[in-house]
Design a protein that fits this description.
This protein has 137 residues and is an alpha+beta fold.
Length: 137
């Protein structure tokens, strides 16, 4: 590996040490349904978001709740302390399309209708509230 490539790789690793995130890949629900749940909690304080997700009647909410708990645990592991109420918030949450399973359904008169079983990837970032105000100043 060349020096320039090694230096850029180290810089990328250092930047990742300051980010606290969790990823969920190949979730077998459509991205549109997952985005509805993601929009409910985007920008909210984490413990308030956990309450919203717990009492949501959407199936995707349980998956996002588990992902949020994982992101909080990642933050606690990197900072070596427990998260307190009002300290963390969801800085960003992204829902991207994943590969689609394409199936055929039988149809009348010898035809076949195409079924697209969609899936998605979710990435959730958490950050401290006071850290965000320092960067804006």
């Amino acid at each position: 590996m060349g020096v320039r490539k090694r230096n850029s790789a180290q810089a990328r690793k250092e930047a990742l040490k300051t980010l606290y995130f969790a990823k969920l890949t190949n979730v077998p629900t459509s991205p549109r349904k997952m985005r509805l749940v993601a929009d409910l909690v985007r920008g909210k304080e984490v413990f308030r978001a956990l309450g919203i997700l717990k009492f949501s009647n959407k199936e995707a909410a349980a998956r996002v709740e588990k992902l949020l708990r994982s992101a909080i645990a990642n933050w606690e592991a990197k900072n070596e302390r427990k998260a307190e109420s009002g300290e963390l918030y969801i800085s960003s949450i992204n829902v991207d399309c994943a590969p689609m399973l394409k199936r055929l359904r039988t149809a009348p008169q010898g035809r076949g209708y195409r079924i697209r079983k969609r899936s998605n990837h979710v990435t959730l970032y958490v950050d401290t509230i006071d850290n965000d105000t320092k960067t804006k100043d």
